[in-house]
Amino acid sequence: MSVQKALVIGGGISGLTAGAALARRGIDVHLVEIKDKLGDEGGIGLSIMGNASKALATIGAAQACVAAGMPADVFTVRAPSGKVVAVPPWPPLGKPEWPAQIGISRADFHRILTEAAIAAGVQVQCGVTTRSIEQGKERARVEFTDGRSGDYDLIVAADGIYSKTRAQLFAEVTGPQQTGLAIWRALAPRPERITTTQLHFGGPQGLVGICPINDENCYVYCMHEARPGERRDPATLHEQLREKIEGYGGLIPGLAAQISDPTLVSYRPIEWLLIPAPWYRGRVVLIGDAAHANPPNVAQGAAMGIEDAVVLAEEVSSPGTFEDALARFMARRWERVKLVVEVSRSVAKNQVEHTPGFDAAAEIRRASAVLAEPY
Ligand SMILES: Cc1cc2nc3c(=O)[nH]c(=O)nc-3n(C[C@H](O)[C@H](O)[C@H](O)COP(=O)(O)OP(=O)(O)OC[C@H]3O[C@@H](n4cnc5c(N)ncnc54)[C@H](O)[C@@H]3O)c2cc1C
What we know:
8-stranded mixed β-sheet, globular
């Protein structure tokens, strides 16, 4: 095994998974998170698709997600009026062991991943980041903002879409780009009996949905076209979202009436990123949103970061040289991630533009056929 000691930069979904996966393979892992504490800020909830559950099972975290979240094998398609049009299956990417999809609160998901990382022996340090990284042939020397320093065989940069590590070491790479789309999300009480994601296609917005995340709550979301740099008044986010989803029927009016706290509403322009392979320089590897990000239409952004983390841990703990391990990592990740970025961009754009004849289901089937294969 070419790696004994690793540093993970960033305690988000990808970084915590990487920490847990590396430590479970006997590697000494130190994780630094720039914020004062671990946890997600305001994203409300997300869907863990079956391929992500498979990867999470390798760090012992999948069952806890099933227990904390709302697992489902189907979703519900509705017309803008709210009329149920179909109840198709989600692509069965986690079968036979895992549900096709789990709606979960981001707070619960972070808690589960943090527990998995701590249980595996990861030393987590918050409120600290790297000051400099000096690449050596066998190890990299890192100086931290708290004055300490350390030598590491591997540095996993999981510091998100605006990765400072990427900016330092991959200076020629273009950063994230606007998709021309934006998404609203709001926490709301889960309507009784609603246990599956509800997707309203058509109508004035690109997509209006409801995702149950546990017995108590769901989140309502709405995606539409947006001008780059468009800003929203944070004090009235609830009113602005209510306006956006006005006219949609079914469960939406009842939920809209309960969206009354602007701090439980998030608005964000959607960016995308796919940096060219390889995602490593010397001893440093970028994973998760630091290397790739996509619109959430196929719910695979976090899933790809989780898979990156698990595959990287597998490869660097296998026999052989460090260089060969990273080359195998890249070979396993490139086509799969590229497909997810391409398909989610195309589905998002065409859904929002209501492109006549665009077959979103066929695009998603194309990605799912690949994602159903082992990562
Ligand atoms: C609207 C929306 C909906 C989504 N829905 C889904 C979904 O349903 N399913 C799905 O699979 N994916 C979904 N995604 C994608 C998913 O949220 C992201 O892919 C995922 O959160 C990325 O995790 P990450 O750990 O790579 O990066 P981040 O979540 O950005 O975490 C990076 C971490 O690094 C820390 N950090 C940053 N800089 C430094 C530094 N210099 N030093 C130390 N620490 C640092 C940050 O504080 C943060 O904790 C969605 C995304 C959006 C925007």
